[in-house]
Amino acid sequence: MCGIAGFIAAPNSTNGLDTVLTLLTNQEYRGYDSAGVVGIDPTNNTLVRERTCDGVRGLAQMTEGSHFPTHCCVMIGHTRWATHGKPSIRNAHPHISEGLAVVHNGIIENHEVLRTFLIEKGYTFTSDTDTEVIVHLTQYHLVWSSHGDLLTAVQHTVDQLEGAFAFEIIAESEPEHIVVARRGNPLVIGIGENVLRGEFYIASDAFALSSHTTQYVVLNDNDIADISPHGYTIYDTDGMEVVREIRTYNMQERTGKGEYAYFMLKEIYEQPDAMRNTLMKSVGVNAFGPHSPRIFEHVEQLHIVACGTSYYAARTAQQWFIDMGIPCNVHMASEYRYSRVLVRPGTLFVAISQSGETADTLAALQKANGSAYLSTLGICNSDESSLVRAANYTFITQAGHEQSVASTKAFTTQLTALRLLVLAITRAKGWCDEDAYMGELFAIPQRMEPLLGLNTVIREAARRYLNVQSAFFIGRGDMYPIALEGALKLKEIAYIHAEAYPAGELKHGPLALIDPHMLIVALVTDDDITEKTLSNVQEVIARGGQVVLFIEQGVLPPVSDSVHTINLGLLPGMSKQFLTTIALQLFAYHVADLKGLDVDRPRNLAKSVTVE
Ligand code: F6R
Asked: For residue range 437-457, what is the model confidence (pLDDT) as tens digits?
């Protein structure tokens, strides 16, 4: 979702504009529909603002050499993922109300009611956003209902807001303050290394701050903070001063693209190490949290909830639990949160999220925490996310920071975590041959290397399909969830309409769509249903579809001019789903790259979906 940035320092101490632009660049993966900054010009204490639909780079160009005062030491900025109001300058943040300016990430659900109230009070709205009510309402409290200072005005505003938000607000009347607030959406304050300059930074995540400082605090839900060059004070929901722990960012997380054209390709290549790290850090009976075996011993069934790629990780693992005699239901978080769910005794709730900030997944976890589950477990790639704080037990995948919007290494490390969960539960019940199981798992990262070696072969295959409009991804049994994930990758980064089907289901309707323009991506592995899948492929060939066949070594591919075969080598045991996933990631990547698309920043999307 949107990224918010802020900077405050002693007057004239440094170039505030550069700092805020860098903080925005660091979190552009959160949204890139538009960008803007506003600062308080120290020469006359007035707000100066710039906004653009050309991203942070465009913003830097606009402000360079212009009237914009680079030496502002109180400045906030925003990079937007549009929710209310299309991407345009008028809807770009910051929004202003007579001497106040705000940037916001989230959704104000009661914005219509507040808008009506504010219009009655004489305020004029200049955007279609829900955000604008925050700034007018604070202006109203500050100036008209005489509640005192900016902090008090924000406290009154927050009391009236419904929905999710993280916002920053500045006022001409208090040129040495930034007031920030969060509920539902993340917000961190970075503490500058130069104490004399009184520098503080604000961002949506610690990664964004790490270009400037390693020291930071994470605000809790409903915290409000008043930040000035003299320090910061945090208040809880009752207005009481509270202290939040100062954390240190691990700089190893901060890496560039290196030799790779895009972060996505780099992150695909990082998967062997990401999986190894996840396995290494997870050895021991308490990998899922202290005393987790005592809970796992009583697990009778599982409910797993997630969104997008994380949901497909859950779908992939579902059968692993069932194979071990543990019933497992998998739900999309956005559906789960509003559905009636039967929770039988002994059910463990598992939420999976790369970011740990996905609004639907967090809401599902909140619902589960209030239900009759045995316990709740969060599988997450960020150890200081909201999900990790809310779950009773946690497992942190060691994928490292994932920067490309399309998830890759997070997926395979989630699969790793889920494999380890199977082991942890069955071990707690005394059902498992642990050594054989771990031996197989530890062999997978090494088996990934030859798959990555198919990069050029897959790129050449991808080159044939740049003009297709639609694709079906087909597979049976344990290949079907991988087909789902492969289709998601292709649609999100290559803008090709792609659906996944269990191969045997095609004849029940979708076959009607097969013609020479339709691409079929078929996954055929060597198992007891290989012949069935091959027959389904033949049905597609007979109807003129173009097929790209990802096939396990040893399986005889159908001979046809319309089939392009990619031999994946041997895919033994547990490695099969991991390895085919990598092949499909590379395929989607190369189609998108060869089409000349911005692979890391697909249109309309953002990493970390913090709105409903
Ligand atoms: C797809 C993708 C999304 C995310 C989804 C959930 O490549 O990245 O589908 O998987 O938005 O995000 P997390 O895992 O952060 O909850």
From this structure: 999 999 999 999 999 999 999
